[in-house]
Fold Transporter.
Amino acid sequence: MTDTLAAQALTAADAGLICGWRFFTDASEPAEVVNALSAAEWLQRHSAGDASPRDFLWLHFNLSNALSLRWLERHADLPDEFYAALREGVTATRLERSDDALVAVLNDVNFEFNYESADIATLWICVNERLVVTARTRPLRSVDDLRAAVRQGDSPASTAELLEHLMRTQADVLVKVVRETTARVDHIEDAIIAQRYHHHRSQLGSLRRLLVRLQRLLAPEPAALFRLLQRPPAWMSEDDRQGLASASEEFSLMLRDMQTLQDRIKLLQEEVAAAVNEDNNKSLFVLTVVTVLALPINILAGLFGMNVGGIPLAEHAHGFWIVVSLVFTFTVIAAWAAFWRKRRDTRR
């Protein structure tokens, strides 16, 4: 009796379900919101073969809720690979087929994403013919944008089309990141052209690290999807396969744009480094010239300051002015030698 009550409580509980939608294969019908209880009832009918073939579910879970995994294990008949990925916290991008279902681990930017910390979060996905389950530990921008699109009337006709919409939404979010990063790089480039180099080296380095991290986490995704599409599940139609292939191509183009932006940042970093080195060389040259110009007077002052006999010109009436003339002459010669060498190096 206690186990039965616990099972009913788990079924009726929110169980970490952030949102649930029931879609229809007829895209003209609007999507319906479902909760944990109605989703459990639908899954029970589906497992018994009583569910209508004209609808499917999308369930989005928050893994921070300890009940989420228990609810899925009790009500959703999903592959063991999906549950293993959830338990182990696998974050490496993957997209593979498990029997007649798709298991994916995708990475995306955090909802509270900023350009200083480069927050990346992971989304675990399982897709079969009648069910799409997504789970995360932290909010994601792409999923939030997809939820907003569904609320506004976007209604995919199949689970594969819903996965395609999710990938396109993810690509759109990353396109925004690339555009905003490009705008920042344009601003920094204008400052560099105006010879304002302060703090731009650290900003360029931060932006480049952000792009490298995003590309490293996201680059395997198009290749994994391409391999999957060579051997799709039986329930995936040709239109669905072409749609996923198109989404993968858009993703690849976005990754190439990120690589191009990285190369541009690298060139700006090299230009800033060259400008800083040039400023350092100028400062070093000034310091060297001052040292050289002070050398004659320091040598003579050291010599004439020794308390020994036989110091020349000590009794001469114009000895002071003779020494001053010698110092001035040697200083002029040293200055001429230093500037002549700089002009010679410049001409080279």
Notes: The domain at 13-273 is CATH 3.30.460.20 (Beta Polymerase; domain 2). The two ends are 94 Å apart (CA to CA). Residues 13 and 217 are 35 Å apart (CA to CA).
